[in-house]
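Possible regression after last week's pipeline update?

I re-ran a chain I had predicted before the update to compare outputs. Posting the input and the new output here so someone can diff against the archived version. Not blocking, just want to make sure nothing changed silently.
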Amino acid sequence: MSAVARATAWADRAARWSGIALGFSIPISTALGSVLSAIVLAAWLASGRYREKSVAIKRNPVALAALMLFAILMIGVFYGDASAKEAGRFLTKYADLLLIPVLVTLFRGADARRAGIYALAGALLATVLFSYALRAGMPRPGWFVEDLFFHVPFKHKLTHSVLVAFAAFLLFQLALGARTPRARLGWLAASLLSVINVAFVVPGGTGYVVFGTLLLYAGYALRGYLGLLAMMVVGALFAVLIYQASDSARERVDRALQEYSAWTTGDPSLAMAPRPGVEQSSIGQRLTFYRETLQIIRDHPLVGVGTGGFPKAYAETVRECGPFEVRNPHNEYLLVMAQNGVVGLLLLLYLFWRTWQLAPRLATPFETHLARGLVLMIAAGCLVNSFLLDHTEGLLFAWMTGLLFAGLDQGRGAPA
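New output (post-update):
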């Protein structure tokens, strides 16, 4: 083997192992995730075989959909009133989409995909266990995130609850695919710990939305519409249990209803007013964000205000943002349409649809259910947050989509 061949082979292995390590880093460290993403890209470029990689990407509809969405976001940089710095900052946040076509060429091997999934599962389980340790009184190490109110080790409350909700689903799928009763029992116990954590230890509205969505899909995946109906009943009973047993959850629900009532009666300021000693719900704020963002969309329906143009457009629409700057409307669909118009929204929906549609053609039923659970998590979360703009959620979606869809049409080849 020539020196060049050895160097490219080494770079290919480095890219793949860095990609696996990236999965472990996602729930734990933003800085490490950024470093590993850069290493993956650099090693991937150094590993050569560009023609082979190009063919693999062209034959992968999900990778192409991700590139199309990023392309419209990049085009949006060149129009609108956003400064070059602001437009570049927003575009950089969406750059995780570029990992999808890179990773579909790195994780072609089933062993690499399995290692990546176990790496993510291990990091998620560590997140859950450290959360319980903090709840039990463990001193908070200096390398944990600073949080005086919630038992979160690596990420702040909202992101933690989303990750743990997805952990419950992922660990449950691993239990279903376990080869021995002992392994199945272990994965089920880990999944149950995740459920309890997101329900009672670190409750969060977005985490509840994600968990409820994945719970319904888990039932459908197991027993079709009968399973879906059963999980609807289980979900309703679980919601009642959480409301009755958790003071924090009950306070959040009651506060949300009060804010919604205040907002709909024409007093958004009351809905947004802080109350000493009471955790703030965001219903009033979000409804105000949605209303003003819809005004931006009505004024710029076709191409939007440009990538990075939302903060300025929002400020001009409301004239007075209050004590904080509104950088996104906490809804990915509204944000993309406000910045990139109806074309941007259609491309975002197209990416989600192709991910869902092509999932049955992945290598195993396990990967199919993970892919569909992933897209449901992101699609549901994007209704109440800008998940693709957020680092951890956006990176999780890009990394896992690239990993899973590297196995497209390998093995089963079932029609979508």
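Follow-up from reviewer: compared with the archived run. Confidence is low (pLDDT under 50) at residues 270-280. Marking as no regression found.
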